[in-house]
# Entry
Amino acid sequence: MQDIRHFHPDMVALTGDLTNLGLLKEFQNARQWLLQQDLPPALLIPGNHDALIKENSAVKQALWAEWLHNRTQSEPAAPSLLVKDHVALIGINTAIPTLPFLASGKAGQAQLVLLADLLRRTRAMGLCRIVLLHHPPAPGIVSRRKGLDDFQAFQDVLRAEGAELVLYGHSHRAQITPIPGTDILAVSSTSASHIADEPEKSAGWNAISVHKQPDIWQITIQHRSLMPDGSLQDSQMRRVCRAHRFLPATSL
Ligand SMILES: [Fe+2]
# Structure
């Protein structure tokens, strides 16, 4: 967290699994931790661990309300949204209670319909659209029992409506994967807490910069990785995205 603060981010995106079992006490502890971080505007989406226990779900959601930027009562399936300057963070909830030994996720048809609408509206507003979901949006990144059941439907929405970037969690690895049939990249990070005994898994985060050019977004992704000496450094995962074409509202 010190390393993140050092970068003075304008926004923070948290891709889930702040708890182990989704216990009420864990949600309370996570709330205290989030408050202590004094984050800039942040969007948090739940992970599968946060959804393992259904009890007290409304209470637990209320504890994280400042960061979930949630869905309204009237539209419980609506994606969450956080806008700052020229960037829109759009959150999809794929966390569903699962049977033991499963960790799969699902966006659901109702949420995907609303996602398509939100992607259209935020594009018309001239925003850089960054979509967050916990589960990897393509097969082969995690095993099937941990995967997103309706990844095809999610990809269909992206193919139809576009997005500038996708961020996911769950895999505990820093990867950059193209979404099939699009020029959209899906980006993940290692966990925030893994000790540095395995370089490919050691704790890290992604510093992502978005610059608005006359007709493109220039997006740079820098993975920061925990070293055995306890410092964080730029890792070999550094990649620079191709610029994404910006579609002004007049072309819709
Ligand atoms: Fe997860």
In short: The helical segments are 2-6, 24-37, 57-63, 65-68, 109-124, 151-161. Residues 17, 47-49, 103, 134, 170 surround fe (ii) ion (CB under 6 Å). The mean pLDDT is 90. DSSP finds six helices and 13 strands in the chain.
